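Let us work through a complete example step by step.
Step 1: write down the sequence.
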Amino acid sequence: MSRIGKRLITLPKGVTVDLDGSHVKVKGPKGTLERTLPTMITIAQDDEGIHVGRVDDSRTARERHGLCRTLVANMIEGVSTGFQKRLDIQGVGYRAQAQGSKLILNVGYSKPVEMPMPEGVQVAVENNTQVLLTGINKEEIGNTAAKIRSVRPPEPYKGKGIRYLGEAVRRKAGKSGKGGKGGKK
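Step 2: predict the structure and record it as tokens.
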């Protein structure tokens, strides 16, 4: 049995879950999320909370058991408290700007990079170098953050680029100076 899959999902106040077969609809103070689970996964609700199980012990059912439990738990957490992801921009002249539902990045290219935000993801820029993504869908926030980071990933020599807040970038030594051992004679 999956250790994650067999854990109970408790419902916070103000969150309701509608189950229709394998279709799950979660409503909360921040919004509504829907997802259809695979047919090999069962989901039931009682007074304690939500239980996620599986129909049989096939390999695919065992693989998806913990995943589906985590997806439903993330939906419940998203509509009750929401999710956020922070990105940090480092480099001389690198900056970001939010215009409505668009993010404009100046990260060393000849033209600014404009990125439209998907529906349900809000963007805010603090100090021109910190980007804050908020929303109720954890998957959308993570994918959007990864797309923003891929515009200019941090490089290992000077550390310039877009990184997640708190991400450690391994630095490499640059070229060696003149002279030293093994040089030309």
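Step 3: interpret the result. The chain has two domains: 16-80, 83-164.
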